[in-house]
Amino acid sequence: MDDGEADDPMTGECGGKRAVHGTLVKVLIHRRNDRGMRLEEFASRCVREGEVHELVTTDRCETAPGTRVDRVGFLGFAEIGCAGVLDRGDQVWIGDRLVGTLLGFDSCHFPNHYNILISAPEPVTGVDLALRPEAEVRFVPAGVIAQAGPREPGGAAPLHAHDLKETR
After folding, report:
1. Are 109 and 54 in contact (CB under 8 A)?
2. First-residue to last-residue Cα distance in the chain
3. How many C-alpha atoms does 49 have within 13 Å on its Cβ side?
4. Which of 67, 137, 156, 157 has the most CB atoms within 10 Å of its CB?
5. Cα(120)–Cα(100) distance, rounded to whole angstroms?
6. How many whole angstroms separate alpha carbon 96 and alpha carbon 78?
């Protein structure tokens, strides 16, 4: 398999998957232009229910392993509500807002938590998006039907990514 297939969640060894949901447990309000995060070589990471990971936005879009990520905005920490797989290219939603696309992972704090890097037009912070603790966080496979999480009306009704409202 070539490297392009391994990175594309719609080809190669990847099939369908459920959306991973969670809850924002702490809002962060700072940004940095010299953070020095490094993009891990892995295009996906498994997450367990109950884990807490940091959500970080960046205007970087390069996915080469080791890519330095300096310009970042910190959104906050999210508790994972159901185990699953996070893939590069997943859409990241907080509430009804599309925040950006999952770019990759920085593991400078692992095993405590991953920095989940989210590609967005510009780095934004939790205060920029008026985030609040307890907001729902969703990692939705691009173009794939995902099962609604337990906090959504209807419980297990199918949800299409295009049904969610983009409010950037």
Report:
1. yes
2. 36
3. 4
4. 137
5. 5
6. 16
Paired tokens of 115: 């920095």
Peptide bond into 111 cis (omega under 30): yes
Are the beta carbons of 100 and 120 closer than 8 angstroms? yes
**Token pair belonging to 164:** 């969610």
Is residue 71 packed enough to be buried (19+ CB in 10 Å), middle (13-18) or exposed (0-12)?
A: middle
d(Cα 35, Cα 43) in Å, to the nearest integer? 21
CB 103 within 8 A of CB 63: yes
0.90 exceeded by the pTM?
A: no
* pLDDT > 50? residue 115: yes
The continuous run of DSSP H or E covering 46 comes out as strand 44-47
> What would the pLDDT profile of 58-97 be if each residue is shown by its tens digit?
999 988 898 999 999 999 999 999 999 999 999 999 999 9
Find all residues with CB under 8 Å of 100, minimum gap 6, and list them: 57, 91, 92, 118, 119, 120, 121
Task: Yes or no: say if 77 and 53 are a contact pair by the CB < 8 Å rule.
Answer: yes
The CA distance from 19 to 90, in Å, is 9
